[in-house]
């Protein structure tokens, strides 16, 4: 059984579409993304002046990458799959699961980012901390006026708040024995109560979309906020909006993949961050990122093997 992981922001790079840029099935996805970016995404990422990490740009690019990669998997017509997404990847997962049209996913990615930018003030960021218990990270975050944003594992988390407060938090975390405590190069306190207004705005946008009936063989859709399976669309969309301003439990998503019986796990990209976490959380499971492969034939051969 194959588990698919849709990546969040942070790993966008100029070669992120090298594997999928010539895939015929992915052409409509690139065409749908072009008006939102002002250029074909395949050309956009290679421009020397392109800011690949701006919030709106990054969210569109990550969804484009996941949806294009999904087209490689879709044509294999596998019988059992599960899909989960990290942060903005949660939205992309709805497209891979056939619940929303790819063009709607990309349009919603832009809307989501715009709502987050409007709700976020100046001076905010996220920080990654590894090597401390979640209880201790939560206490340290509260002490510095910050919030737990993401549970990655029993000793790995992301916190959000004012950049100055996060720097002090990281200093104290390092003194407490953290293996890693750094402020991340982002400017939005995602998955914290600071973005409550963005959740409300995005919920209104989601309510305007027409959901699709998943086709036969579509992957089981796992909710990024808590690792539960989406059965009721209304509840699922509510959680999709709420995760912008509430802590997401990625560890629970990986646990869901394990409990569903995943034997192979593929991160759709860009990057390798989710594959790295999956190797720790899913021992005995074959794990790769799409970007580990040099060709589409290599990806399909690995999956079919």
From TrEMBL:
Pfam families: Acyl_transf_1. InterPro entries: Ac_transferase_dom_sf, Acyl_transferase_dom, Acyl_Trfase/lysoPLipase, Mal-CoA-ACP_Trans/PKS_FabD, Malonyl_transacylase_ACP-bd. GO terms for cellular component: cytosol. One of its GO terms (biological process) is fatty acid biosynthetic process. GO terms for molecular function: [acyl-carrier-protein] S-malonyltransferase activity. Residues 5-296 form the Malonyl-CoA:ACP transacylase (MAT) domain. Keywords: Transferase. This is ACP S-malonyltransferase. It comes from Methylobacterium gnaphalii.
């Amino acid at each position: 059984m194959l588990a698919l992981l849709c990546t969040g922001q942070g790993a966008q790079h100029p070669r992120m579409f090298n594997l999928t840029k010539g895939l015929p099935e992915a052409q409509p996805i690139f065409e749908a993304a072009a008006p939102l970016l002002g250029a074909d995404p395949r050309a956009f990422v290679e421009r020397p002046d392109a800011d690949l990490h701006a919030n709106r740009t990054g969210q569109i690019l990550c969804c484009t990458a996941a949806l294009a990669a999904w087209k490689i998997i879709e044509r294999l017509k596998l019988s059992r799959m599960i899909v989960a997404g990290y942060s903005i990847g949660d939205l992309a997962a709805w497209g891979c699961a056939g619940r929303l049209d790819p063009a709607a996913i990309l349009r919603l990615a832009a809307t989501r980012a715009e709502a987050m930018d409007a709700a976020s003030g100046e001076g905010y960021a996220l920080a990654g901390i590894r090597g401390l218990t979640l209880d201790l990270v939560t206490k340290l975050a509260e002490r510095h006026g910050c919030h737990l944003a993401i549970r990655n594992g029993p000793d790995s988390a992301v916190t959000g708040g004012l950049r100055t407060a996060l720097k002090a938090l990281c200093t104290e975390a390092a003194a407490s024995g953290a293996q890693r405590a750094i402020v991340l190069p982002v400017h939005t306190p995602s998955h914290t109560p600071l973005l409550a207004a963005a959740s409300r705005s995005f919920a209104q946008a989601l309510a305007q979309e027409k959901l699709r009936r998943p086709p036969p063989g579509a992957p089981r859709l796992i909710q990024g906020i808590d690792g539960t399976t989406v059965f009721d669309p209304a509840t699922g969309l509510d959680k999709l909006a709420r995760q912008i301003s509430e802590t997401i439990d990625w560890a629970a998503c990986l646990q869901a993949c394990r409990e569903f019986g995943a034997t192979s796990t593929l991160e759709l990209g860009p990057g390798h961050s989710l594959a790295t976490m999956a190797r720790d959380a899913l021992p005995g499971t074959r794990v790769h990122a799409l970007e580990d492969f040099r060709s589409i034939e290599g990806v399909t051969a690995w999956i079919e093997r």
